[in-house]
Design a protein that fits this description.
about 600 residues; alpha+beta; Rossmann fold; Hect, E3 ligase catalytic domain fold; 4 domains; five-stranded mixed beta sheet; 18 helices; 19 strands; DNA strand exchange activity
Length: about 600
């Protein structure tokens, strides 16, 4: 008789132990003693029978499907060490699963007792069926007890850290840290070689992103500088990748924060449990820089290494007919010679022939707007008219005087979020019938509300101080530094060129909502907040400039006063936004 051996264990860590060896030895010995011909061995490594993972998504489920498709020789047995290798689901679910799989002709036999589990066996021997039910109850109950104990253990660890009785929940930590047993704390991984100093590498990543460098370029530069990627064995990546740079930039562990989570097998992020724990890890990035970088809009890749133009308008340009993106086409290189076949006239291209065209029309897909727009003319027009507004003080590395204040503000905001979240939790508990008469919870809600109010006042105060401290340079100085960045776009030095390009792209991404290329060959540029608009012809000449906020606020207030209306400021702000939208729609429709 043919047989297939099925082996399963629930934890990947058990792979290092003897679970596989024990099961394969017992099942093989059972098959040999009974004269079974073993066709193959099916293994579910790290698959839980308690959750039914091996049945639903594991190899056992796939084996059942093979029986359904008649891909397994008829009469083949599936040999398992014992019943709980198959499932630890509740008894009724086990019966339901067996009822569904028995029609496929599958039969199971356990190596420990020689128990046959099949439709015929269950119908012929009711005592065996009751034994199966009893074993299912026992296995599931045992697994549930272990699961509950494990959950309680983790909750006890989390409580210990939150109450200050424990320093850590587990030794697992981000790749730039390690757990120091002697010091009983997490410490940053440092090294005399800056390529191996992970704290410095994380700080470098944040500093570069803070100046507008995109994830892809940061990863590329790390690889070019010979900085090895992190990880061990199979988990060590082949070089740096933009996705990993993104994860570092958005991981609050860099400011010392840890968010406890409960994660089921197969889940990547899990479910948040409780509030984030501050100062769990050593802080290596300031809260202000973390907030700034996390909130920054990703700049499209600037691709270095070429002195010629790159698409500084990437991600902003759209067709005005079908709303698909415009693509960047290079039709000729400066200096290329062309000969007219009819006249023999030789022409030398004086500039790069770079154009923007609707991607849909270019592919013949849902658009007939086939016009091409000269990229150089449009890009120069945008830079000439918008760069002075787009490049603001925060794009120039002159923040040292405000760093401390910005850090205090970021910390105060996070503390406010913590108070508000705790207050909400306390409020939810007061609405729970089980705690309805618990005065301590009601008092805690009141206290937390008072603390949140005080923290909110501090945030408003620091916000005002920071706004007042952002001293601006004179208009002449600002124009000078903008001109310097503009000139650096075509620098011979690759690093200077890349830095200027990323700075300009980041600035445009923060200011511009979209650049629309219309069928009448005009180009419209609108700001993100809808307050500003520019209109150019296809040669880059400015046709119109619109400031949709001029006079609106003053006009609305003056009219309200003249009518002696009792007008709420929020209503005024809402009406202003509606007027902006109407004017912008009118501009786009003209």
């Amino acid at each position: 008789m043919d047989a297939i051996i099925y082996i399963r264990w629930s934890s990947l860590e058990q792979t290092k132990g003897d679970s596989y060896t024990r099961q394969i030895n017992r099942c093989s010995a059972f098959c040999e003693a009974n004269g079974y011909n073993v066709l193959e061995t099916v293994v579910d490594e790290g698959r839980s029978a308690y959750t039914g993972e091996n049945i639903h998504t594991g190899n056992l489920g796939k084996l059942v499907e093979r029986f359904e498709r008649r891909e397994v020789p008829q009469g083949t047995l599936v040999v398992v060490e014992q019943l709980d290798r198959l499932t630890r689901l509740p008894a009724l679910e086990v019966v339901g699963w067996l009822t569904r799989v028995f029609p496929t002709g599958i039969r199971f036999v356990t190596a420990d007792r020689g128990t046959m589990v099949s439709r015929a066996a269950m119908e012929a021997d009711q005592l065996s069926f009751m034994s199966l039910i009893f074993d299912s109850f026992r296995s599931h109950g045992e697994s549930k007890r272990k699961s509950d104990l494990l959950l309680d253990s983790w909750q006890s660890r989390r409580n210990g850290v939150a109450e200050g009785r424990k320093r850590n929940i587990t030794g697992v930590c981000p790749a730039w840290l390690r757990w120091d047993r002697e010091a009983n704390e997490f410490i940053a991984i440092s090294d005399p070689d800056p390529r191996l100093d992970r704290k410095l590498i994380v700080q470098r990543i944040f500093n570069e992103r803070d100046t507008g460098v995109g994830h892809a370029i940061i990863a590329r530069k790390l690889n070019e500088d010979g900085i090895p990627s992190w990880g061990v064995g199979k988990r060590k990546a082949d070089g740096w990748h933009p996705s990993y740079v993104y994860k570092i930039l958005h991981n609050p562990a860099v400011i010392g924060e840890f968010q406890p989570r409960s994660r089921r097998k197969g889940e990547v992020t899990g479910t948040k449990i409780g509030q984030p724990i501050p100062d769990y890890y050593p802080q290596i990035i300031s809260p202000a820089q973390f907030e700034r970088v996390s909130a920054a809009k990703q700049v499209m890749n600037v691709g270095g290494g070429t002195k010629g133009r790159v698409n500084l308008l990437a991600g902003l340009v759209y067709c005005g007919v079908c709303n698909q993106r415009m693509i960047y086409l290079k039709k000729a290189n400066a200096g290329r010679t062309r000969t007219n076949p009819k006249t023999g006239t030789i022409t030398i291209d004086k500039s790069n022939g770079i154009y923007l065209k609707c991607s849909g029309a270019h592919r013949g897909h849902r658009c007939d707007h086939k016009a091409s727009f000269n990229y150089n003319w449009i890009a120069d027009a945008v830079l000439d008219n918008l760069l002075n507004s787009a490049l603001r003080d925060n794009h120039f590395e002159q923040r040292s005087a405000m760093v401390q204040l910005a850090d205090r503000l970021a910390s105060a905001r996070r503390e406010l979020e913590r108070f508000e979240a705790q207050a909400q939790t306390a409020l939810d508990m007061t609405l729970d019938p089980a705690f309805k008469h618990d005065q301590r919870i009601k008092q805690r809600y009141v206290d937390l509300g008072r603390q949140a109010d005080q923290q909110r006042e501090l945030v408003d105060k620091l916000d005002a101080e920071l706004a007042a401290s952002k001293g601006q340079v004179s208009p002449a100085e600002h124009l000078s530094r903008v001109a310097s960045v503009r000139n650096s776009l075509d620098s011979e030095d690759e690093r200077i060129r890349d830095a200027a390009r990323t700075k300009v792209m980041d600035a445009l991404q923060r200011l511009v909502d979209r650049i629309t290329f219309k069928s009448d060959r005009t180009v419209e540029v609108s700001a993100l907040d809808g307050s500003l608009g520019w209109q150019f012809d296809d040669k880059g000449n400015l046709l119109n400039r619109f400031d949709l906020t001029v006079g609106l606020h003053e006009e609305r207030l003056r009219n309200a006063i003249l009518r002696r209306d009792n007008v709420d400021r929020q209503d005024i702000a809402q009406e202003i936004e509606e007027m902006k939208k109407r004017r912008l729609d009118a501009l786009r429709g003209s």
